[in-house]
Amino acid sequence: MQRKTAPIQKRLQILSQTEIETLYGRPRFTQDEQIEYFTLSPAEKELLRDLRAEYTQCYFILQLGYFKAKQMFFTFDFPEVQDDVQYILEQYFPHTQIDALSAVNKRTHLRHRATILDLSKYRICDEEERQKLALKAQHAATVCSKPVYIFRQLLDYLGEQRIVVPGYSSMQDIIGNALTYEQNRLRAVVGEQLKDNDIIVLKALLDDSQGLYEITLLKREPKDFTLGEIKREIERGDQIRHLYYLGQRVLPLLAISNESIIYYASLVTYYSVFRLKQLDERMVYIYLLCFVYHRYQRFNDNLIKCLLAKVRAYIDEAKEAAKEQVYAYRLEANQNLEKAGHVLKLFTDDTLAEDVLFQTVQAIAFGILERQALARVADHITTKIDCDETAFQWEHIDSLARQFKRHLRPLLLGVNFTASQKRSTLMKAIDFLETAFHKGKPLTQYLAKQFPIQFVPGSTKRYLYEKETQSPKRLWPNRYEFLVYRQLRNGIESGDIFCRDSVRFRSFEDDLIDNQQWAQKEALIAATGLSILNQPIQEHLAELEQLLEERIVAVNQRISAGENEHIKITQHNNQRRWTLPYPGSKEPINHPFYDTLQQVEIGDVLHFVNQQCHFMAAFDHVIGRYTKPEPDNRILSACLVAWATNMGVGTMAEVSDIEYHTLATVSDNLIRLETLKEANDLVCNATAALPIFPYYELGDVIHSGSDGQKFDTRTHTINARYSPKYFGLKKGVTAYSMVASHIPINTQIIGANDHESHYVFDILFNNTTDIQPTIHSTDTHGANELNFAILHLFGYQFAPRYKDIYGTVNQLLYGFKHPSRYGDLLLNPKRKISPQSIIDDWENVQRIMLSLALKTTSQNIIVSKLSAFPRTNKTKRALWEYDNIIRSLYLLDYIDSPPLRQNVQHALNRIESYHKLRRAVSYAHFGQLRFKTEYEQQIWNECSRLIANCIIYFNATILSHLLEHKKSKGDKQALDLFTRISPVAWQHINFHGRFTFRSQPENIDIDAIIRQLADLHFIP
């Protein structure tokens, strides 16, 4: 009998009230915005003359200005918009009073609306368009079932099609119906495909037969790469392999994206078994299949990562040992050389009788220097060959045989590897070893001719055989086995060997959309809004060629004419060099302004922010709100502070007035990645709605920056890595974060040795806030040979700061002509771009971009694999060439535009300021992370960002109120000051001491703070 589902709300809740007001609310213009939006073009003035009465003309200007700002229409009376009416009257009707304006009837309103639509080339979302919108929502639901994702997809579609956004309730209905349609579709497919035996096996995962649910055991991940942890992981993989094969059969029939599979899988992690049993059975089957499918892929990932790490560690150990042996050898040779000289003197020693026996001379010589040492010195003198360091490495590998057999053999047997034709000979060796291990037959019992050796490099063969004169030579089995592991590691890292049942180590083709989807590429390109991909590539390249060639000439001319005052040219002999100074920071953190504020407790700050934007409403109970009372926000605040500060709920219980079991219960039930990200989005969006936010734009656009921050870990986790530069002898992780207009809008945990440039697109594309950057900056570590291309095709401008701008331009400025044809330019292209390379493989570039847009894969996987490809790979070459064009355009703009350089520097300064705030928030245990799993690290990362966001919102609120106060007084000097004060500050926030959460939080009176600060004067 099917369980009853819980009652749901009449309409789907997609946005918070603040977000709804921001999107749908009538604009509240500043004075500058009134000038911008109420200034009429000649065509608009012509239309205005057709309206007879002044009140209709005024109403028309109002509606037109509001439509320009939001592409929406609003219903209002003149008194409701008195400030805007007064401005319009002063500009266009100076002799008319607001009281003289009559109300506008519905007929006039509709006529104005039609005129504005015709003027702006927009159209209303009628019934036909709503049906198209419904189909668009249904398609988006297959990519990601999060309502906010579908909502944003629809907004993008409406903007591209120049359609007025329907009301929020209409959007709720469209998205709710799409999700209902998607769930019904999925239920139907699962109902058809699952057999009775399949259902029994899936239900068994939720049984408590051994005192602990099977699914709970499967959720556990290995903590590190120790032998015990990996053996337990292999057992978990064996347990779910048959269910993975079931998922392989059923999930493709659901026609959902990898993103949706991961999302549905995460629900099993979020929900308890009790909650899962309450949900619709068929949907639970989908969640379980997705979980098992994704968990088995992560199982293979974990094993392969372990294999790579272990082989690398053995190689490094062998190299280090070999270096020590070489040092010892050379030291011994130097010491024995003098003794060898005494041996040579025996042949000129007159004290020896002429008839002395040679054996006697040998005995004397070996007494001076033992036989083997003498032989080594003789070899060194006669052959002039130094010691063989590689031979020493292999000798050390011999000593490691017992270790690598115990650790690497289970990994080889646990993963099903596949290889390209290039590595087919290596696969024969892998198959040979797997067969031998399955049989339990020692390798020493095989003849040398039975070992496949076609994969062995010629330079390595002499180290695999014993040095004997007889034929055939005897093979060293241990060395052969390790060589297979070493070559396997090289093949995996180059992308020639892969595991199809994996997330990160699949083949490149498996990461892209399949042939069935690719057959619909035109429709997919249109649906994803990647407009550049729809343009014929020859036309697009012709436009880029014209733009780049014009910029090369123009920028060089400005330098020659002395118009670019910042570039400094020096002449040495016949070589010219130039320098370009980097701008300094003008946004110091912890501005002295904040010293005037009274100290506030962090708990009171959270209470204040929650009162304003209700972010704590995002923390719904893991088993549903309808079964539990609303959580106590004071206890939730304590949990958030415990996680964010790195102290943990145990320590929080010791330093606060809340018991451990209460904190642990609330933490387990409410704090999840999903709820934390939603809460962060709510605070970010609320900050963006404050009056001060537009003043944080750089160059009148939202300019973001991203960078990684290193944290060492007290407990080893599977993603923690050594990095002597940052952690010394310890391990750690990187929190990679993106900041836009001072607000941290996204973050993720990556490995300390992962290249940050591989995550730039991911962190931009997976941003779920309303703050959508136009330009994105990184330091040199964020730049690679693909990011310019990828970000440009997705509509972003990539604007990195290079450590050596002269060297970068000298090496990476390209043009469409041969360098010799540009003459004697200061900024002369170093190589000719090959457009044909791009044209020839543009289809594969389109396929890669569509795969990223549809979330079939992620940038860090795609870029890491492309980077491993040889330079001759056509797709890699095409993307590189396209990247060269976009990067060259940027480099020219960077040199030519001081504002761009300043904005890039400001964006990176802001991310550094946020890092300092984050470090101040996560102060406990000296900033050394104490979390035991990767998931706990992610929870800490999001909690820390949430606390930082709340502090920034609190500061920005104070600055916004002061801004409004000073605007009302007409104090322009103070306005300029307050808009340049960063909201990233914490000297007035108390993170320490004993916390008292159970008492009623102290309400922060912003009005009282503003009154206190209003008459103070600050030095800019």
3D architecture notes:
This protein has 1020 residues and is mainly alpha-helical. Helices cover 58% and strands 6% of the residues. It has 43 helices and 14 strands. Strands 6, 7, 8, 9, 10 and 11 form a six-stranded mixed sheet that branches. Strands 1-2 form a two-stranded antiparallel ribbon. It has a two-stranded antiparallel ribbon with strand order 3-4. Helix 34 (787-793) links the parallel strand 10 (775-777) and strand 11 (797-798). Helix 26 packs parallel to helix 39 (874-896), helix 28 crosses helix 29 and helix 28 (633-644) crosses helix 41. The longest helix has 65 residues, at 281-345. The chain is globular, with a radius of gyration of 34 Å. Mean pLDDT is 85; it is low at 1-9 and 624-628.
The CA-CA distance between the termini, in Å, is 71 Å
Q: How many beta-strand segments?
A: 14
Contiguous low-pLDDT stretches (5 residues minimum) are: 1-9, 624-628
Number of helices: 43
Question: Would you tell me the overall average pLDDT?
Answer: 85
Strand content: 5-15%
Largest sheet, strands/sense/barrel = 6 strands, mixed
Q: What is the CA-atom radius of gyration, in angstroms? A: 34 Å
Specify the oligomeric state: single chain
Q: Helical content, roughly?
A: 55-70%
Please tell me what the overall shape is.
globular
Structural class by SSE content: mainly alpha
